[in-house]
Fold these 3 entries.
Entry 1:
Amino acid sequence: MSNQVQADYVSAQEFESNSEAPVERGDLTDIRPIPRISMQCFCETDIIAQTLEMTGRDRRMARTHVKVNMGGIPAAVEFYQTAPTPNLIMVESHKTNPALMEELGRLAEVCDPDTKVVVIGHHNDILIYRELISNGVSDYLVAPIAMADIMNTVSDIFVNPENGPIGRVVAFVGAKGGCGSSTICHNVAWAISTRYKVDTLIADMDLAFGTANINLDQDPPQGIAEAVFSSERVDDILLDRLLAKCAEHLNLLAAPSTLERTYDFQQEAFYPIIETAQRSSPHVVLDIPHMWTSWTRQTLAAADDVVITAEPELASLRNTKNMIDALAELRPNDSPPKLIINKAGISKRPEISIADFCRPLELEAAAVIPFDPELFGSAANNGQMIAETDSRSAIAGHFDFLAQVLTGKAELKVEKKGARGLMSLLRRGK
């Protein structure tokens, strides 16, 4: 047995001998609630697993999805061969360098670039810490650890204002009324939340006629109206109270869908809502009504990605071209909008071919969704998403693909394995 292996073995045995000790809580007084992130842990010792499990049950972690597994880094590598990676992975290891870096390199090959990694080690060695941090690991904690240590680390990564918002904003808008932008928006958000198991928030910004509550079979007493008309009071607590939970990882900020008042807003009326949502949810999906006002224009300009839904006919082509040109001026340093052509192939309707539609726009369609009134009608009448109505349909596959494109996630089981080395992945994911 080499000196290093023997040292690791002795360290593990000494630590396990104290594993019956009660879980340390530490000072939890000033820790802020942790956002809606997914966090998966792979432990080697029972006491670390118990500490992580108790941390996950704390009220400050109520919005966080925490799963604790045994097996350390090797188990994580095997698990993520076929599973999507979460926002945060915590791994426990008794190893030191270079063995630790080699194991993390294998983990990097099956991780997405935006996943954060925290290592819980058993060697209080500044050289290990410096090497891990320099290669993109978010933090290195030395066991024994307390609940407060874990929460402070997660808070520093996801709550610290200096690190910016954690949520990516995608805005969906139609090139004309009735083209199906809202339905596509809701189905893509569903696909993101179910396929990748990350928290996703839908904000229905069509206060008068929004359909997200119907499509998702929700009837919340409050929603986005209470937030936008009290924007100065919007914070994490208020937003939590206004959200309707549609699924394990999907929340809805519903529109009132009533005509009891008019809805005229200032240019930045929705900014506090979006900024607050970004601080607590990894994916924020905006369902923007088909109109061109100061607030819709500014909201589209501020989004990370814009998705335009159009039908293959002349009015949609004209409007899509105008919107792309306007957004190019508003967002000169951003990628162009994603284009979805919906309701393709309506019987007896003269249509512009996909190639002719895309040519003047100078971009390719991200998806062409065929006209299927039976499938969409059945889903709408039952308050279901397409994947719930017929998970094997080609249209459900389109929504899965769009979820992959908009999240930047690697294709499961195909592109992830061996995609990149530790240095590039962890530096990009830091």
Note: The chain has two domains: 3-162, 165-407.
Entry 2:
Amino acid sequence: MSRSVSSSRGSESPMEPERAHRACEKCTRTKKKCDKALPACSRCTRLATTCSYDFIYTAPTTAVVEPGYLAGSTPKEAYGQGIFDPAFDVSSSMVMALLSSRNIPWREATERYFETMNPWFSVIHPELFAIRTDNLGSGASSNVDQGPRDPAVALLIVCMQLVSQYDDEAAAASTNVNEGKDMIEMPAYRAAKRVLSVLRGLSAPSIELVQCSILLALFEFGHGDVMRAYVSIGDANTMAMVISLVNADRAVLLLWRDECDSDTSIASTTSFDCSLIHMPLQVPSPAADDLLPTSNLIWHNQNQSPTRSVQRHPASVAPSVPLGPFQRNCQCAMLYTRAYSPKPQGNPNALLEEYVELDIATRALVEAMIMQTSRWGDFYECFATCTCLLLFLYCRQLRAANTISAAGPFSPTADDIAPKAIAGLNFTIRIIADTTTDLNDQLAHRPHLLAPCSPVTPYSAYHCLMVLSHLEHLIPEADTRFHNIFASLHFFAKRWGVAGKFLGY
């Protein structure tokens, strides 16, 4: 194609080189000065790029067009045909727009979730999820980035992004990333919540909807809305029960247990929301012969690296058996269920005996994790959950000992339990102080370590601060430990909004 050029100076100077009548395409689009030289301008020559003067320039537009105008109707009429329309339906493209509108590749979002969250909160089976998504865009005319066609799977991807997202650059540059932010008011979260309500109300319960409800409960719990998380857990438990009743085939039930691990995954979430609001447990504890999740990353001291191991252990397996992070969380959830189950009133001695048994079992679990790995970080979430449980048990032991002492002036049982409970509190606070101090040192140099941080960790720190503030005269170095643990909440606030609420943001 010949260029449409003309001399910009006419014929007044025959010695002057001929120039194009306008700037080249590259200089025009980058808004750079062009000398209009032929056959190529000096800038394109310097950059070794193609210089073209024959192009159609389309100016960018910032106009916002109402969808109603595109359909030939007024915005008011378009609004009336929204969610109240009987023919209204949720499409997968509508759900995936929650990610594409923010330029978030959905495959990167799922990879980040599996790297940071799923090791300790294994709600989604990686292999089965890959089977559902690897075939997307496999056709000749398909688009790899179009996402899944099932709205429930699309919503699950959005929920995976919600629970794993946080601002890496802001976390590295600022100490108050979430200050003034309310993550519960995020448009993406509110839209995901609405989509889940529509899909749950108009379609049959599915594994994906159960997983979505659990992940949204984790998001709500991590950002401080505990009551809403409790309701979400109830929804997930109800759908799981319906699926178990409908799918009577044993093969389907085995697939369901491997896919979502309904008892253990929901119980692990219920354990930390019920520990705060003192509501009845919605999910029963796994039975002793229930199988724990089969695949986990396990740390081996000889190789000094994590390796993937496929195992099947009963829920009553001894703590000394090496297990992965989520399997440890399942064991801790069983202890939580025992501790928070309703107890008969009027027999404080029986309560003390049960609390002592739970104390021994929890400490054995903590010791097993310490012996299994040389790094706190491999079991941060389970350490935090165990310390919350220990604080609860020791405070209840002190209360029971006080009740026994009030009933009689001389009680050998109360005199023996109270010092042990105080020593147990000191032991637990020392664990929390050591882990948070180590975590603070690491986060100061590597903020990306916040990505796998569990929302239970700031709750553990907060409960520890409450104990220190009330029993500072009984805990050695209470003031120093208080300030070290309090400083950790600033780091946690960059990942989970509930830590910022504890700090008064």
Note: Residues 54 and 457 are 61 Å apart (CA to CA).
Entry 3:
Amino acid sequence: MKSYDELILAKAKIPQEAGFKAKPINAPLFDWQKHIVNWAIQQGRCALFEDCGLGKTIQQLAWAEAVVNHTGRPALILTPLAVAGQTAREAKKFGIACDVRVIADSTQVGLGINIVNYERLHLIDATAFAGVVLDESSILKSYMGKTKRTLVDAFSATPYRLACTATPAPNDHLELGNHAEFLGVMQSYEMIARWFDNDSMTAGGYTLKPHAARDFWQWVASWSVCIGTPSDIGSNDAGYRLPKLEQVEHTVVMPLNTDDAGDALFADADMSATTMHKEKRRSAAKRAERAAEIANGTKEQVIVWCDTNYEADELMQQIPDAI
């Protein structure tokens, strides 16, 4: 007879490995990146939830190349609009050995890594590929969305699947279920039934059961890598920690506004949104002038943040070659 612990463990939903043993990776990855790619290859169907700047593009290229070499069949990378060309350039930069091409439709598919944007998915025969990568896979976020359903249905029989994004669930935890469904780990509705309760305060909303939180995150970690820095998986953060932010405040002196003072010496203080924006508009030229002095005083590239169009117009007038 099974012990109680064995009985409970048997009920755990841990996805089975569906990949293969990776051959040595030739791409110039950091050791921690190679560790992740090797794990992803062995898993076969998984997600890389890594923060911005951690090299998801080269990791997904290395994963796709391994799939091509193992199966002798093409792999597909789906990207947002205008990212396809950048991904192909990254492949050349990092020495991906197999053929890499940007395609417009199925007639251009060849052995190697094929890259296309999501808007052309309807022109692609999904059955031609042994592996698929979703770049910026947060596109799956809508539970009943047309894009999610199209992607899930199109690649449900694809042997190897990888989802990559820094924002897997920007709105709520339920969006993780869409990734799990695309990867073939679990249906979204089953995830909701297992770990979530109806939110009585929000129509159609769900909340994670407090007693189920640990089990839920263990399940998520069984099919995804979730890291913000390399040290999250025991590596070194050298080169990934930004220097301390230095803030320098500049004060622009404006003449007193007596237009609304009436018979008084000064106008009454009014912190409403209307008067705040009125003052911002009144001081826009002066503030833009100070920002332009700083920007024009260096040969380095400069980003100037502004709130409104009229502030942007002032800056454009005072900073040559601004775009």
Note: Residues 4-233 form a domain with the Rossmann fold fold (CATH 3.40.50.10810).
